[in-house]
Design brief:
It contains 10 helices and 16 strands. It is α/β, with parallel strands linked by helices. The protein has 2 domains: 2-170, HUPs (Rossmann fold, 3-Layer(aba) Sandwich); 195-317, Riboflavin kinase-like (Elongation Factor Tu (Ef-tu), domain 3, Beta Barrel). Strand 6 (135-136) and strand 7 (142-143) form a beta hairpin. Helix 7 packs antiparallel against helix 8. Residues 67-74 have low confidence and may be disordered.
Length: 320
């Protein structure tokens, strides 16, 4: 899989490109339908398969400016389900040939329909697939139907995938965020086809967990808003295998110097290996409780012991 952050680094494709465009945050069944359709077109038309995503995601960009466009006035910046690392991991597993990670700027956000289509033509795009609610251009002025019209005018095949529903409910990233915040990981797994997981590189912490008998593998969550907050029963995939564990996601309010950024701390059960600098994947299975501030470290330790017993129990119930 080839990754391009700047179109100037992309020197074209002789065969041409079948392109899927979107945020793909969480990669739920609706996103999967878009990718599957794009890949089917790539095979039938003899094209390379490609995905175009955006960094930051559009609502993150407008949220930083203090302006959320087109009916999103007053909405908070949505919690990010996937980092760029998570997305690339998923696209690689889906056998996507090329990923264009576009820098989302004022200029890009303000492209006209003609400028947008001209960009696709310069990339030798022969086919485009989007979701039915896709929009582009200044203020999101252009819809998926506008994209179809513009593509057809220059001989580019284009289609918009209808929404995917489960029991009459549209599956969306917004729905997935809500389910994660509620701790309903069973339904999340149904809608994304796998346990909700976060992957990242283990970094050095302040070693407080080790001093109180619960050493942790720490991952910095580099996202503006995280959908997780609290203590969870998890499974951890690392270079040594797959292990049960418990994780805290938050700001560590009980310690003297809480972190300013959201941190994922994982206590891996029955494990004593060295993970510093290596990548792990943490799959969230069950929410145990919210993150709270304790009056003392002793109270924190007592609660962690209780959390570990409960995590071990609920994870044992989920074993095949």
């Amino acid at each position: 899989m080839r990754l391009y952050r700047w179109l100037s680094d992309f020197h074209g494709s002789e065969r041409g490109i079948a392109l899927a465009i979107g945020n793909f945050d969480g990669f739920h069944v609706g996103h999967q339908a878009v990718i599957t359709t794009m890949q089917e077109k790539a095979r039938s038309m003899g094209l390379e398969s490609a995905v175009m995503i955006f960094e930051p995601q559009p609502l993150e960009f407008f949220g930083k400016l203090g302006v959320l466009k087109q009916g999103a006035q007053g909405r908070k910046i949505p919690a990010r389900l996937f980092t760029i690392r998570d997305k690339l991991r998923i696209f690689r597993a889906a056998n996507v040939d090329i990923v264009f990670c576009m820098s989302f700027t004022r200029k890009f956000a303000g492209l006209s329909d003609v400028e947008f289509i001209s960009m696709l033509q310069s990339m030798n795009v022969k086919s485009v697939t989007v979701g039915s609610e896709f929009s582009f251009g200044k203020g999101g002025a252009y819809s998926s139907e506008d994209l179809k019209r513009c593509c057809e005018s220059v001989g580019v095949e284009c289609s918009a995938i209808d929404k995917v529903e489960e029991n009459g409910v549209r599956v969306s990233s917004t729905l997935i965020r809500s389910l994660i915040e509620q701790g309903d990981f069973a339904t999340v797994q149904k809608f994304i086809g796998r346990p909700y997981a976060i992957a990242g590189r283990v970094v050095h912490g302040n070693a407080i967990g080790r001093t109180i008998g619960f050493p942790t593998a720490n991952i910095n969550l580099n996202r503006l808003v995280c959908p997780l907050r609290g203590v969870y029963a998890v499974t951890v995939c690392c270079k040594y295998g797959v292990f049960d564990g418990m994780a805290n996601v938050g700001y560590r309010p009980t310690i003297d110097k809480p972190t300013l950024n959201t941190l994922l701390e994982v206590n891996i059960f029955n494990f004593d290996g060295d993970l510093y600098g290596s990548e792990i994947e943490v799959s969230f299975r069950y929410k145990l409780r919210d993150e709270v501030k304790f009056d003392s470290i002793a109270q924190l330790v007592a609660q962690i012991k209780s959390d570990k017993e409960r995590a071990s129990y609920v994870l044992s119930l989920q074993q095949p």
